[in-house]
């Protein structure tokens, strides 16, 4: 996987920094003619501490998952990974957070992890872990997610990366 330097997205500020604008800019940059076909999967979020709103766009990733006192909800954002189709467009979900809320972002390597019977860990298992840990600290939540995937896979070698991050709103 290639990591793009921050300077690559310099033009973003001219069109705006909304999550869907950022993903659209990434898509345009990856579609430049003459370059080998490249694509990526990502989620992009912007938090406004004044309004407590988290604006999220997604492209080719599961979730994200909103964890609050009432439980865990899969936000089910969808979007085509940037670099595959020139006409791709992206929507932005606005989520108003309360103190103590968290949002889990993760790669599909977590949901696509498989066990010895080739069964996938899946969205439902991940959501169940998140629901059970909805009040946990971000560190504990991530520990429990990775422990659940490891326990499920019983040491089976995985073919995809596994990464996760938690945004936790403290107020």
Total discrete domains:
1
Order of helices and strands: HHEEEEEEHHHE
**Helical amount:** 25-40%
Can you list the strand order of the major beta sheet? 4-3-6-7
Mean residue pLDDT? 88
Strand content: 15-25%
CATH topology: Phosphatase 2c, domain 1
Write the layout of secondary structure elements.
Elements: H1 12-15, H2 19-30, E1 42-48, E2 53-59, E3 65-68, E4 71-74, E5 93-96, E6 102-106, H3 108-111, H4 122-132, H5 138-153, E7 164-168
Antiparallel strand pairs: 1-2, 2-5, 3-4, 3-6, 6-7
Question: What does the model show?
Answer:
- The protein has 171 residues and is an alpha+beta fold.
- The chain has one domain (6-168): 4-Layer Sandwich (Phosphatase 2c, domain 1), CATH 3.60.40.
- The protein is 27% helix and 21% strand.
- It contains 5 helices and 7 strands; from the N terminus they run H-H-E-E-E-E-E-E-H-H-H-E.
- It has helices spanning 12-15, 19-30, 108-111, 122-132, 138-153; strands at residues 42-48, 53-59, 65-68, 71-74, 93-96, 102-106, 164-168.
- A 4-stranded antiparallel beta sheet has the order 4-3-6-7.
- Strand 3 (65-68) and strand 4 form a beta hairpin.
- The longest helix is centred in the C-terminal third of the chain and has 16 residues, at 138-153.
- The chain is flat, with a radius of gyration of 17 Å.
- The N and C termini lie far apart (35 Å).
- Mean pLDDT is 88; it is low at 1-15.
């Amino acid at each position: 996987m290639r990591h793009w330097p921050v300077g690559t997205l310099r033009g973003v500020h001219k069109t705006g920094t909304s999550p869907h604008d950022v993903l659209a800019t990434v898509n345009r940059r990856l579609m430049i003619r003459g370059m080998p076909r490249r694509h990526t999967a990502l989620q992009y979020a912007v938090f406004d501490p004044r309004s407590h709103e988290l604006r999220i766009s997604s492209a080719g990733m599961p979730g994200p998952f909103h964890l609050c006192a009432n439980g865990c909800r899969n936000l089910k954002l969808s979007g085509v990974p940037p670099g595959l189709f020139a006409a791709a467009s992206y929507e932005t979900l606005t989520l108003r957070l309360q103190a103590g809320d968290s949002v889990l972002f993760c790669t599909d390597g977590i949901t696509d992890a498989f066990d010895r019977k080739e069964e996938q860990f899946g969205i439902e298992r991940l959501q169940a872990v998140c629901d059970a840990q909805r009040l946990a600290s971000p560190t504990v939540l991530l520990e429990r997610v990775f422990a659940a995937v490891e326990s499920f896979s019983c040491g089976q070698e995985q073919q995809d990366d596994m990464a996760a991050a938690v945004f936790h709103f403290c107020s």
